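Subject: Sanity check before I submit

Could someone independently write out the structure tokens for this chain? I want to compare against mine line by line before I put it in a report. The sequence has 228 residues.
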Amino acid sequence: MSNKNTSNRHGFADFQGYLVKQFTGLDSKDPSVWPVLPRAALYLVVAVMVATAAWFAALKDYEVELQAEREMEVALRADYQKKLLKAVSLDALKKQREQVQQYVIQLEKQLPSKAEMAALLSDINQAGLGRSLQFELFRPGQLVAKDYYAELPISLKVSGRYHDIGAFAADIAHLSRIVTLNDLSVNGNPKDTNVLVLEGTARTFRYLDSEEIQAQRKAVAAKGRGAK
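---
Independent answer below. Compare away.
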């Protein structure tokens, strides 16, 4: 038994000596001349380092992808909440849409047709005469066509007393058709201190009929082609 233990110790000592010999006197500048064990250990260390670097690089890519997926999740949740809110309030939105459509119809009814424009101009003139105002200028301008309606400016210059001019402006506002007063100026009359002179532009609007709308669209399209 004693001989066996002694043999084991000698064997371990010889192995230690072999390892020490393998790793002693290594030339750090030329690993190719190293003994087998140091070279194998070096290859193993390099392989572990390369594998570790590749692992961390892959983890970095996965981390970026994970962050992108998290941000997408947040965006999808926000979009889902918006759509859910719209779905919940769909009935209310439909009612609001109907109210807006009714309001638009009411506004359209306040726009005269082409045939009614002469009557509207007469109403504006009668509103001034009814307040005892003197028309020094009442000149309709050039009709300006928009997408679905036309705008007619009317140059005005009337003279009268302060309260009569104010009542005239109120009467214009209460006409059944839409008429606005713009660019107003009020000045005294050098000939009569009790009389004021009102100058400005009245603007009224009418809707375009189907033929006028088509002509307006063609004119816009032709203008666009000409610009190119």
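---
OP: Matches mine. For the report I'm noting this point. The mean pLDDT is 80.
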